[in-house]
Design brief:
Blueprint: E1 2-7, E2 10-16, E3 26-29, E4 35-40, E5 46-50, E6 65-69, E7 72-76, E8 83-85, E9 104-107
Antiparallel strand pairs: 1-2, 1-9, 3-4, 4-5, 6-7, 7-8
InterPro entries: NirD, Rieske-like_NirD, Rieske_2Fe-2S, Rieske_2Fe-2S_sf
Protein name: Nitrite reductase small subunit NirD
Keywords: 2Fe-2S, Iron, Iron-sulfur, Metal-binding, Nitrate assimilation, Oxidoreductase
């Protein structure tokens, strides 16, 4: 099984689903040269957001710590610790900042 991201109008296979460990992120290079940070939660639900931390400019969100607040899954940047909602991309610590999220699906290899 693979994790696929919707990029523009097509689906892109990012990695094997088995490459993801709940609570840990993986970075994937997208066809246009950007990076996505991929995650799964303990229930196996996948998420994909832009890997670029908008506060530092570094490609590090895939290395962040995951958690949840009020039932919302997030990743905390490993550099400055801002938390980003994995479903919406909204920064939970500064609501004027967001990161891009990508629609995801599990596909058959």
């Amino acid at each position: 099984m693979t994790l696929q991201l919707r990029i523009d109008d097509s689906w892109f296979t990012a990695c094997e689903l088995s490459a993801l460990t709940p609570g840990r992120g993986v970075a994937a290079l997208l066809p246009d040269g950007r990076q996505a940070a991929l995650f799964t939660d303990r229930a196996g639900r996948p998420y994909a957001i832009d890997n670029r931390d908008p506060f530092s400019g570094a490609q590090v969100l895939s290395r962040g710590l995951t958690g949840s607040v009020n039932g919302r899954p997030f990743v905390a940047s490993p550099l400055l610790k801002q938390r980003f909602d994995l479903e919406t991309g909204l920064c939970l610590d500064d609501e004027t900042v967001t990161v891009q999220t990508f629609p995801v699906r599990v596909g058959v290899s």
